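Re: folding output
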Amino acid sequence: MIRVKICGLTDWTMTRAAVDAGADAVGFVFAEGRRQVSPEQVRTIVEQLPPYVTTVGVFVNEGLARLNEIAAYCRLDLLQLHGTESPDYCAQAARPVIKTIAVRGPQDVEAIDTYLSCTRGILLDAYVEGASGGTGRTFSWEYAVHAAKRAPIILAGGLHPGNVEEAIRQIRPYAVDVSSGVETAGVKDPQRIQAFIERVRLCAAAEYAPQQRGG
């Protein structure tokens, strides 16, 4: 099974649409940007979620004390860090960490080893100068193929209903993470969310199905 995270959610209506469509995790961006939400907004949403939905807070170079304060207040399950946070910083976070690596080339794949002992997982995203995720840009998936041999990989960066199946076939990631790829005119689109998750499930079922033995 490949897990699916719908990120950049800003209200209960869209969060519920993601959960109803079968999302395993929902993400809330606390860093500056058009998808930024407040701790108060997220706490209200989290309180309404059914069990077994993982909540993820997305941060960029947040002060450690503030990071842990928000995590506790919002009752977040995981912290997804998109900045230049060090392994030592990750180790001091009050919740398990997903560290994002912005991929430009093979040297970025090498950086994964630095974070394996202090994180729950590694997320690969496209490098875009001046941005920290949610850009809708892809990166060369050949690097993700190599990264997946080092650790379970969460794949992000330009995924959408039209290309996620090919990404799964090439990379076989542990999970996929999408934000702008399920939006229409900058707003989360329930139909695109549904289509994205359906294609992940169908492709994963085909790719990971045990081979039938001949009679």
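--- second protein (sequence, then structure) ---
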Amino acid sequence: MNSAEKPSNVDSSEIAKFEALASRWWDPESEFKPLHDINPLRANWIDEKAGVAGKKVADIGCGGGLLCEALTQRGAQLTGIDMGEAPLAVARLHQLESGLEIDYRQMTAEQLAELEPESFDVVTCLEMLEHVPDPAAVIQACARLVKPGGHVFFSTINRNPKSYLFAIIGAEYVLNMLPRGTHEYNKFIKPSEMGQWVRAAGMEVEELMGMTYNPLTKRYKLTPHDVQVNYLMRVSKPQ
């Protein structure tokens, strides 16, 4: 696919959800508070596992640039892509404020993989797979983007009764942590499904890490043995 073609692996209704909220992306008390809360956890874990300083990193579905800026502050050279025009505009505005050098582009993972195959030491794709029609195709694109020996990091939400209760009923309707309709249960992804797509793309699963939320302390933490709701997956591309 070249960049002039209309991307097929895009859900316009999902893009519209985040376009409508884009101006509040960097407000830590807005609808994006959960992202602000988990961003240091995710960035530290990625840096710990991949050592991002001095490495080329692509962030797929970067939104307003929270992870891009966090990894750039840790020494990475970031390319952030998203299909939402408004979140990217917010990311570029905040970049002027932060003074960080980040290459933001409006394109899909598939388009970037065609333009720059095997160009990145690390690829991240967090909280994005549950918002596209064909997550397996995004995983394939990430495999094409990363250099042999490189790391890819995914995060998403498991699909089971507990995740429905916590991620939709709890987060969207009871605690009002997220706008209603942010997530659709049938788009949640089981780790077994993710692992199957990763292996089909020629990569290997290295680690599975859960992330839990305590509504009493209002704190998130990484939990290696609890992937029932939110989880991250670290994968590698063989040399």
